[in-house]
Amino acid sequence: MQTKAISPRAQRIPALDFTKGALVLTMVLYHWINYFIGPQWPYYLYLRFLTPSFIFISGFMVSHIYLSKYDAADPRLSKRLFTRGLKLLAIFVVLNVARTLVVPVLGTGVLVGNLLDLGNLFTVFVSGNLPVAGGKLASFIILVPIAYLLMFSGVLMLPYRFYRYTFHVVCTFLLLSILILGLIGAQSQNLELTTIGMLGVLVGFTPIAAMNKFVRHPYLLAFAYLCYTIAITIWNVPYPLQIVGVPLSVMVIYLVGVSGSESRTIRSEVILLGKYSLFGYISQIAILQILKASVRHVNVGFAVLSISFIAAFALTIISVEVVDRARARAASMDRLYKAVFA
Length: 342
Hints:
By secondary structure, the protein is mostly helical. The chain has two domains: 1-47 and 260-342, no CATH class; 49-206, no CATH class. Helices cover 74% and strands 0% of the residues. It contains 14 helices and no strands. The radius of gyration is 20 Å and the shape is globular.
C-alpha cells in the first residue's frame, strides 16, 4: 500500500473517466424514465447500481487519485477532502433551494414538505430514507453521502498516517453497524451508501495494473454479472447484493473503457463526460426539468417520448462540451468552474 505521492500531479486514467461518463449517460436514462414514464416502470431494479456506483468511484478516487497527489502525512490532503465534502453539501443546499423556486413554476413535480423542518432535515442528512412515491423531499441526494465520504476520509487520513489499515477497520465497523441496524429493523441509506464508498477506498489501494489484469477476463465477468442479474430478478436488490453488484457493474463498464480505442469519437465524448461527471449529473436534471415542462400540455406519445429521450442525451453532452470549451478559452470561466466543482 502506498502512502507517498507517486508524482506531483496524478495522471488521469481514461478508462476511469470512461466509466464515470458511461454512468452519467446511464443516469440520464434513469432520470428520463423517472420524468417521462414514472415510478411504475417495472425494471428500476436493474438500474439500482447507478447511485452507489458514483459513490464507489468517489471512494476509489480518494485512495487511488488523491493519495497519488499528496503524501498521506500532508495536511493539505485532509483539508482538500474535507473542503471538497463541505462544498458538495453547499451545492446540494443551493440546488434544492433553487428547486423549491423552479419546480412550482415549471410544474414538473411535487414538493413534499418543508426541507427546513427538523424531521425532514433528519431524513435528508442523517437517515437518507427518502420517500419513494408521492413527490420528492429533496433532489440531488447523491451529493450528501459523497460529501460525507470525502469528509470522513479527510478525517481518517490523520490516523492513517500511523496505521495503514485504518480504512479497513472503519469499513468493517460500518458494515457491522448496518448489520446491527438490520437486526433491530432499522435502516440508514446514507450509512449504506457511505459504506459502499468506503469499499471503493479499499479497492483504490490496488495498483491500476493489477486491476487492468483482473478485468481482462470478459467471460468470467459476463458469467458473474449474469448470476447477479438472476439474483436481483429473484430477490430484488437487498444490500448484500448491492455490495456485490456495484463493483461488478463498475468493472464491466471499466472493461469496455480499457478495451476501447481513444481515437473513437463516441469514446472520447464519454471520457469528456467522465471528466465533468458532477456537472453532467446536475445539468441533466435541469435539462429534463425543462423538457418535461415543455411537453406538459402535450399528449405524450411515442414521438414525443423519442424526441425527449434523444434531446436529453444530446443536450447533456452539449452542455459539457460548452463548459469544456468555455474553460479552455476564458481563464475566468476556468476559475469559476474550479471554485464550484473542483
